[in-house]
Design brief:
- By secondary structure, the chain is mainly α.
- It has one domain.
- The chain has five helices and no strands.
- The longest helix is centred in the middle third of the chain and has 33 residues.
Length: about 130
């Protein structure tokens, strides 16, 4: 699955860009709880992305070897989100809950951004031919 690993490399790069912007926002603005919520949510979202890619890779290998696969880890990813919600509830003075939820959705946003960028790149390559 080289395409999946290539996609994961691009998504990982975008996630690091978002995290670096959030860390700069946390360090240089007065909205520290908002950016801390974004950092926590995006970090957990990044972990969920890694889980999804690793489970998908294992799924592809199992299908290629005619083996059974239990799941793609939806319950694990939900448990990670619940763990993050518990942290935000325990420390409401540190984390802004809306920004945490937005951070949890970051990898979906990153996937959409990558899709649009790849669509534009593909169209340009077709036009050049």
């Amino acid at each position: 699955m080289p395409e999946l690993q290539e996609l994961y490399g691009r998504l990982r790069k975008y996630m690091f860009y978002f995290l670096s912007i959030y860390v700069l926002g946390w360090g240089f603005t007065d909205y520290q709880s908002i950016f801390l919520g974004l950092i926590l949510g995006t970090s957990l979202s990044f972990f969920n992305l890694w889980l999804l890619v690793s489970k998908t890779t294992r799924f592809g290998e199992a299908v290629a070897n005619s083996q059974k696969v239990r799941s793609l880890g939806m319950l694990t990813r939900m448990a990670v989100a619940v763990l993050g919600v518990m942290v935000v509830i325990w420390y409401p003075h540190m984390f802004h809950w809306i920004s945490f939820v937005l951070g949890l959705m970051t990898y979906y946003i990153v996937i959409m951004i990558d899709f649009f960028l790849q669509t534009i790149r593909t169209r340009k390559q077709r036009e050049e031919r």
